[in-house]
Design a protein that fits this description.
isomerase activity; binds ligand LV4SOB2L; 4-stranded antiparallel sheet; 4 strands; alpha+beta; GTP Cyclohydrolase I, domain 2
């Protein structure tokens, strides 16, 4: 199966368990990989035969920007579920990086895989 990916998608959102995190937006960075058979799009050169990564990015930016979850686990699984259910991809891998959340660590977050390749 082929992969369509979106990398380094930065979105401001309310995320976290501490009082200050409920009031101040923070940046999460999403890397998304989506299994998709791109053969027909390659043959026809027609956007109708593929997954429109612009449509995926718009949906995820709107969802994450309006969300206010406590845990990165919840947010990451919600993003994976939207992609599986609304964009009909058979498999998705979502990496959510809450950069700077841990002093001394450059990166921290969650990696979720849903579906089958
Ligand atoms: N497994 C998790 N651990 C922690 C989370 C989380 O979402 N999942 N969140 C926090 C705080 O909100 C953190 O981001 C601020 O330091 C702590 N641990």
């Amino acid at each position: 199966m082929d992969i369509i990916f979106l990398g380094g998608l930065q979105i401001e959102t309310i995320i976290g368990i501490y009082d200050w995190e409920r009031e101040t937006k923070q940046t999460v960075i999403l890397d998304i990989e989506m299994a998709y058979d791109i053969q027909k799009a390659a043959e026809t050169d027609d956007i109708q035969h593929t997954l429109d990564y612009k449509a995926v990015s718009k949906r995820i930016i709107a969802f994450v920007g309006a969300s206010s979850f406590f845990l990165v686990e919840r947010l990451t699984v919600e993003v994976a579920d939207i992609i599986i259910n609304e964009f009909k991809v058979p498999w998705v891998k979502v990496t959510l990086n809450k950069k700077g959340a841990i002093r001394g660590a450059s990166d921290v977050g969650i990696i979720v895989e849903r579906g089958r390749k």
